[in-house]
Amino acid sequence: MAEPIGLASGLLALATFAFQCSISLHETVNSFRSHPKRVRDLLEEVEALSAVLGPLAEFVKASTDIDLSALDLPLLRCGSACKEFQQEILKCSSRSDQNRTNFRDWARLKYMGDDIDGFRRLLAGYKATINIALTDANLRQTSVNSESLEDYKRLIQDAKDDLEARLEVLDGKLECIVEKSVAQSGPDAAELQSMRDERLSTEKCLQICAQLSDHIDQIQLISDRGDASHGSDGLNTSPESVTNEGLQECKNSLALTARKLEKHMQDVMKRLLSQSKTTISSEKDEEDLARLQDEWNTARQCLDICSRADNHLKENVSVIENYGTGDALQFMVSTNGKILHGKNRALGWRSRQVGGYVSDASVQQLSRDIATINMSHLRGMEPPSTDHSNVDQRDEVEGEMTAEFKQRYGQGFKLRSMSFPEGSAPSPTTSR
Predict the structure, then answer these.
(1) Which residue in 47, 115, 173, 349 has its CB near the most CB atoms, within 10 A?
(2) Which DSSP string do the residues of 153-172 spell out, in sequence order?
(3) Is the pTM value of this prediction over 0.90?
(4) Locate the Azaphilone pigments biosynthesis cluster protein L N-terminal domain: which residues (predicted)?
């Protein structure tokens, strides 16, 4: 029990650090009178970031049973980026001839070679990743409606797209440094070139794994069907289900391979950049390289967080939206332990609904029971009976029916016997 509490304490400290740095950055930017459009956009992004970091700190403080340690590096880099950009603003404003409240030279501000818009996009990536991790944790404790889940899916996809674009930019910057190092390293050029080729090869392998996994998603069949075949042991034995199990094993193997490649990529990049530092002459360039490396690692960690949240949503959450009218029978059940999110809605004179976590056998038994009740209703609301006289009466009625009557009115059923005064009882007949 001591380990989760220790992890939570460390995460809480990082969340608090990032939150305080975001608040301080907002106050610094807001202290100037001049706020061009790009500065106003930055202020909005910093506010949105703070609005995510605050609830995260509260969640970590209240929960010790959910592991969010994957956020350690993103939170550290988020807080450091806010603090370092604030220092750049103060440094730039101190060199300006104008007083601080009238500082207008926003275009000169740079962070890791990017302008204000680039820094704002960097913060947006942190915000999205933290929000996704927090939502993923909340989904394990509470339920949300299907509309919120759709918004969450779009958030994950948008964050993954933005992070992949961010990684491309960082890869380009790192590649420039490596090329420069290869050109200047002399005797070590061959070793640097070999490590560079290994990094590019690993990147290509990761792309292949991602493409194959996406292709499996596209061809994967839906096995959770209502008419699925079940064996004597109660397991789903339909061809679609068997195919899906094999495809899922392929996806799991690809995910394991991708994790190994990611680890190898980080090791190669670490060795490559360590070797490249020998060609750097100034302390500032060395700091910039170290910051770039940290940001590259953080972007990959953020992308991994988003991918895991996406997988958790696909594998552990079932979304069901039932809407029926008239004589409606609705099932909203989970037979495999998946989290249920959805609604049973019906407008009709006789709507029946089933919801909850049950076994396949229970669902089948409920279906049979409801079907039996329906037949009883059609037979004058009489409950099923083992009395063979009922069968004989039904055969007698069917024998009296002509083909024309059946075609026009249907099968029909025997009416209940009723007591009438002598001489007024109607003759036996059938009714649809």
Answers:
(1) 173
(2) HHHHHHHHHHHHHHHHHHHH
(3) no
(4) 2-210, 240-306
